[in-house]
Every structure is written in C-alpha cells, then in structure tokens.
Amino acid sequence: MSKNYYSLGLMSGTSVDGVDASLINSDGDTNYKVEINKYFEYENNFSQKIHSLKEKINAVTDLETYSTELKALERELTIFHSKVVIDIVKSTKKKIDFVGFHGQTIFHDPSKKISKQIGDGKLLSQLTQTTVVYNFRQKDIQNGGEGAPLAPIFHKVLVKQNKIKLPVCILNIGGISNVTIVEDYQQNNLKSRDLGPGNCLIDAWVRKNKKGNFDKDGAYAKMGKTNDLILNQALDNFDNRPDKNRLSFDTKDFDVNFLRGVSFEDGAATLTDLSGIIIGGGLFSLLGEKRNESFKVLVSGGGRKNKSLIQSIRSRIPQKLSIESIDDFGVNGDYVESQAFAYLAIRRFLELPISFPDTTGCKSPVTGGEITQNFLI
What is the pLDDT of residues 270-281, one digit of tens each? Predict the structure, then answer.
C-alpha cells in the first residue's frame, strides 16, 4: 500500500491578488483529501507593486535590467509566503511533509523557453523549517515543453476522487484560461493547453480606470454594450498572431491599449466578449471531432464567478457542452490550483511525472521541481 503525505500547496496566480493555500493528504498518485483551504490577501499595496514591476518586463533582457528590483520583490514575496506557511502550521496538528511553492510568474515566453517565477525556495525553507519544492517548470522546459499548464495531472485525480462522470473538461479561468480534457484515467491520455486571456484583460481594464481590481460578477460588462468593430479587429489580431500553435500564454501577451474611444462599461463588455469568444473557440477547437458529443465543462478559478463572461462562453459553444461550476461537484473552485501544487510536490518527491507531451509539449513525461531542506545542520 502506498504511503500518504501531508503537503501544503501555495499558489499566487496571474491575478496577483494574494496567496491560496491548501493542505492535502495524498499518495501523489490515485487519491487526495483536502485538510485546509485558506486565502491570504496581499497587504499594503503589494499586489500593485508586483503589477508595476511586471509591466516593466517585456523581454528576456529586462530580467537582468531589473534584477535588483526583482530580488527585493522576491524576498518580500517569500517572506509573505513564510507567514502563510507558519499560519497553516499553527492551525493544524498534522506534520507537513512538503510545501509546494509555485511563486509568482513574472515573465513567460515559451518561444524562448523561458518561464520566470520569483520566490526563493531556500529562504522559504529556512524561515519555515519545512521541506520546500519549488521551481516546478524548468525540467519541463529543458525537456522541450513550455512549462505550462502543470495542473492537468491533478485534474485527472480530482475527477476520479470526486466520482465525476467522464468525459469531462476542467476549465480554469484565472488571469489566463486553460482547459484539461479527461476522457479516462490513463495518464498519457490527458490533453490540455492554455486557451488565451481569462480575467487578465478585464482586470487590467478595471485597474486602469481605477474602478477596483476586477469586475465583480461581471456587473460592469452587463451595464455596457460590446463595440463590434473593436471586438472583430481584436479577434482578427488574435487569430493571425504568428505563434498560433503555442500551448501556454502569459498575461503580458495581452493588453487593453487597443480600446480607445469607448466608455468604461462598453470597454468591460467588449473585453468580456473578446475573452469569452477566445475561450469558447479554443475549447471547441481542442475537442476536435468530440465537440458534438456530450461533455461537461466544469469551471474553476475566479472567472467562474463572472456571470457575464460565463454567459459569453456559453452562448458560443454547442449545447452538448454544458458549462457548470466545479463547486456543484463538491470541489471548491477557488483552490484547485493550490491543491494541484501540493499534489505536484508529492509527485516530485516520488519522481513521478507532472507534465506530458499533450499538456506542455514536452518530449516525454517528466517530473519537475527542486527540493530543498535549508534548515538541516
């Protein structure tokens, strides 16, 4: 019988609003049980500090140009994560075997085989006296992959654990949207990819207009009217981009600068429809010949709460693709990604693969992550 471990996953996603923390008990293979889910919001404008630095980094050379600022931000980010770990440790009697530390993505360019996450795993291990697994993407990139998406192998066990009828799609809408198709429980049959913008365009528009950090429930979009001319031009630009075959995206791949001469509400409506059309079209394309079969599409991530976005996606896909919240199947849709990195940390320790040719484009199934115990004498 395989051994189970307690693993704490930490996820600071592309929305950059805080840290999702999930403690799970799992064998890293066929089962898991959620012990704790908890959200820690960034404090003192730290979120804005991350966004501001990210906006300066548009090329690989910028990583060196702003290296001093990145190092300072990385330390601050790691210290915040250490407080999260200590909070969880104090709230449970379980001995935590691993901490899966995703870090914060600052730059992702699959064409140059670079995916940069800040987060000092060794410092986190030292501050928390725990075994930390971090830097999950590099081995995949070295094996010819794009370093993302990494959650699909967890999506598979999530579907099995919660007895969700197959076939099914897990559609995660964070800053970037991605989808995993689970048709059976064989690992190599997983199929996944990023689809394009999720919340990132809508969030950027709201922040730019100083109306908050996101469009709660899609209320702003609902008040506006889509500008079809701008929408169609933006769709043409997306369809005609030179890197059409990529499997992963960065939020920096998309911006709202093309929106001119529209009201705030109309801009929100236009960006919501743009994101919805891209997500729906990507889902339709990935399903291929199976697109006319009955598939449940279970939505996780913050975007599932945006009613306008969900309606936009729903109106552009076949009726046989039923979009439902993953929460309706006993899964908290806010914590799928943090649970995933807890699970991936265990798999790294066991040297089991976390990415596959049909998920990241890697040459062969590969594990990933560095393990550090920076507290042992």
Answer: 999 999 999 999
Q: Phi first, then psi: what are they for 103, rounded to 5°?
A: 80, -170
* DSSP SS3 for 187: helix
Digit-coded pLDDT (tens) for 73-119: 999 999 999 999 999 999 999 999 999 999 999 999 988 889 999 99
For residue 330, give the DSSP letter.
T
For residue 158, the SS3 value is helix
**Shortest CA distance to 342 belongs to which of 137, 1, 36?**
36
- Indicate left, alpha or beta for 25 from its phi (over 0: left) and psi (-120 to 50: alpha): beta
d(CA 347, CA 141) in angstroms, rounded, equals 18
From the centroid of its chain, how far is CA 274?
Answer: 19
The residue behind tokens 């908290």 is 332
Torsion angle, alpha carbons of 176, 350, 144, 284, to 10: -40
Q: In the chain, what are the domain boundaries?
A: 5-150+334-372, 164-329
Residues of the chain with pLDDT under 50: none
**pTM for this entry:** 0.95
Place of tokens 């990023």: 194
Q: What is the CATH number of domain 5-150+334-372?
A: 3.30.420.40
